[in-house]
Specification:
By secondary structure, this protein is an all-alpha fold. It contains 9 helices and 2 strands. Helix 4 crosses helix 5, helix 4 packs antiparallel against helix 9 and helix 7 runs parallel beside helix 8. The two termini are 24 Å apart. Keywords: Purine metabolism. It comes from Pseudovirgaria hyperparasitica. This is Oxo-4-hydroxy-4-carboxy-5-ureidoimidazoline decarboxylase domain-containing protein.
Length: 179
């Protein structure tokens, strides 16, 4: 897999919206709802770094999660964004997610069963976690604990935090294109 390339952060907000959506898709996952929510990116004040951009997006997503508590349209948008991540262990996972999920070897049947249980427990959500080379038994234990907790509000927050952790990791590994 080739290393993704990002434009210099100082140029990102000045680039055309389609380029901004490509960058957002590299950092997060392709999501029309995320693109609609965030683009065009504000030009002022400029983002100082990709971590600063991701922190700003985290704040926006957490605010959306709060509004989603009382607003069906906001809930729908949030669920579309959170559902853009592929299921762990899903066949046909592409791009960066495929490499990131490479450590998930082992009981794939149990992973699929827990994915289904999770989505039954939390309609509209998909289990999102920063894998970071963690072994499958650790991920399965986390899934079970989150299902047992049964708190959909907390799950939305955890999914946002995981998406941002993944984006930070992706940004740290990406090449920055020359000006």
């Amino acid at each position: 897999m080739t290393t993704p390339t990002l434009p210099p952060i100082s140029h990102l907000a000045l680039l055309p919206t389609p380029t901004q959506t490509t960058v957002l898709s590299l950092l997060f996952e392709p999501s029309q709802a995320l693109h609609t929510l965030l683009t065009p990116l504000p030009q002022s004040p400029p983002f100082e770094s990709y971590p600063a951009l991701i922190s700003s997006i985290r704040t926006t997503l957490l605010a959306l999660a709060t509004r989603a508590l009382t607003s069906p349209p906001h809930l729908h948008t949030l669920e579309q964004i959170l559902g853009s991540h592929p299921r762990l262990g899903e066949k046909g996972v592409q791009g960066q997610s495929k490499g990131e999920q490479g450590s998930l070897t082992g009981d794939q049947a149990e992973l699929q069963r827990l994915n289904a249980r999770y989505e039954d427990a939390f309609p509209g959500l998909r289990y999102v976690v920063f894998v970071a080379g963690r072994p499958l038994p650790d991920i399965l234990a986390d899934m079970r604990a989150r299902i047992a907790r049964g708190d959909i509000v907390k799950e939305r927050e955890e999914a946002i935090e995981a998406m941002c952790a993944i984006a930070l990791d992706r940004a740290s590994k990406a090449a920055i294109s020359p000006v």
